[in-house]
């Protein structure tokens, strides 16, 4: 009898469990929609209370105010480097994080915004930018000061905390220090290091010969070349140095695609025994993918080199 009762109730239990699961799924979807509406209401109330005339960025849900506008200044394109200062705060005015008195954030425009896990005591602003910040930078120009009001769903991946609940909107105040193309980064590096460029090619390669050997022949494809070198980013960061390795030199055959294009093309402009700077844009280096954690996408590269042997 007991077995029969259990069998009789099984279909009913299955049906009820299906309703329960469906109800949970709908509740989850309703929560997301409700939080979006609540964020929109909170942002609108904030704008009204603070008498801010904001512009909505398309259908993203983000609102921005240009406190200092520079309509004739440079905007960012893919691969450009943006330096900016940022402060994040709740809508009640509580400051969560700030770069005030610190170094600016460096961001290469066109690379993916990075998710973050915490705000406090992790200085995430130095390493990553959020989706909300990224969207704000799409309308920013050099020298501008912007206030962004960002709904929680644009800070994808946020983990709620006591200081910033998961579904709370957030305010970002951005001050754009500079926007530089790769070519501008290269020219600034050359000027800062007082490098005397002796040859500039149409593809963006710059060569500055510091020790000339005009009696030697130019290097050609098929030859094996041994060099010593130090590789730097245009902010001065050393990312590779043959002199710091057990084998202090590096050998490659020209024309065999064993090195990046910047080396392939640049080495054919110099001679055995010469010392020189070789500087080129990312398109001739590691391009849109980068290499490792230091050479990120769209980074122009600068090498200090010496040609030791040519065979």
UniProtKB/TrEMBL annotation:
SUPFAM superfamilies: FKBP-like (SSF54534). One of its GO terms (molecular function) is peptidyl-prolyl cis-trans isomerase activity. Keywords: Isomerase, Rotamase, Signal. Residues 79-180, 222-311 form the PPIase FKBP-type domain. Its EC number is 5.2.1.8. It catalyses: [protein]-peptidylproline (omega=180) = [protein]-peptidylproline (omega=0). Pfam families: FKBP_C (PF00254). Residues 1-22 form the signal peptide. It comes from the Bacteria. InterPro entries: PPIase_dom_sf, PPIase_FKBP_dom. It is an enzyme of class 5 (isomerase). Belongs to the FKBP-type PPIase family. This is Peptidyl-prolyl cis-trans isomerase. It comes from Fibrella aquatilis. The lineage of its organism: Bacteria, Pseudomonadati, Bacteroidota, Cytophagia, Cytophagales.
